[in-house]
Design brief:
Elements lengths: L30 E5 L2 E7 L1 H4 L3 E8 L8 E2 L4 E8 L2 E6 L5 E6 L4 E4 L5 E5 L4 E8 L8 H5 L1 E3 L13 H5 L8 E2 L9
Antiparallel strand pairs: 1-2, 1-11, 2-3, 3-10, 4-12, 5-8, 5-10, 6-7, 6-9
Protein name: Cupin type-2 domain-containing protein
InterPro entries: Cupin_2, QDO-like, RmlC-like_jellyroll, RmlC_Cupin_sf
Length: 185
């Protein structure tokens, strides 16, 4: 039996809207959204954790670099469970690095550090956790992308236009860097 809740974001969700309530979610049954060619599944967010952290997965095909961005108040974790993901990061002093993460590898991006990633193999999956005093950003995926009711990758990539990236509300703690250049290989 699966219980569904109504939240301020969705008419049907398997994640309870209020904090302090234990719950369980079967594999892939969280709140889903398509953004670019990826499927993002939220398992816990600000509503459940009093805006302390979120927990989500990103699954995608081998593809393009996700646009450079930073989170002014949020630390982000990348843990690869399937495939391979190349993580690009720049520290607050401007030093850039990249690393290929494969299953079991971990990447940490502190707040205010520009970063981007690219799925290097088909069927790659990243487990993400983000935490910080500025709240959580998981609802950004549905607001910039498109909510998804079913499992699986989008049939057509959901790619917002450049103007959409500029309109992302500050409440999501995501700042895009459209002119950012990566100087790594």
């Amino acid at each position: 039996m699966t219980i569904e809740y109504v939240t301020r974001y969705r008419r049907a969700s398997r994640i309870p809207a209020e904090p302090g309530r234990p719950y369980f979610i079967e594999k892939g049954e969280g709140d889903r959204a398509h953004l670019c060619g990826d499927l993002i599944t939220i398992y816990a967010g600000g509503e459940q954790t009093e805006n302390i952290f979120n927990f989500f997965t990103v699954e995608g095909p081998k593809g393009d670099l996700i646009p450079a961005h930073l989170h002014p108040d949020t630390h982000e974790v990348f843990y690869v469970t399937h495939g391979a993901v190349r993580l690009f990061v720049e520290d607050t002093e401007g030093s850039q690095q990249e690393n290929l993460l494969t299953p079991g590898d971990f990447g940490f991006v502190p707040k205010n550090c520009p970063h981007a990633y690219r799925m290097e193999r088909h069927h790659s999956q990243v487990v993400g956790v983000a935490a910080g005093p500025g709240g959580t950003f998981e609802r950004f995926f549905e607001n910039l992308g498109a909510p998804a009711d079913g499992l699986g990758l989008p049939h057509q990539p959901v790619v917002p236009g450049p103007e959409a990236f500029a309109t992302v509300p500050e409440q999501y703690d995501v700042r895009f860097l459209p002119d950012h250049q990566w100087h790594t290989r």
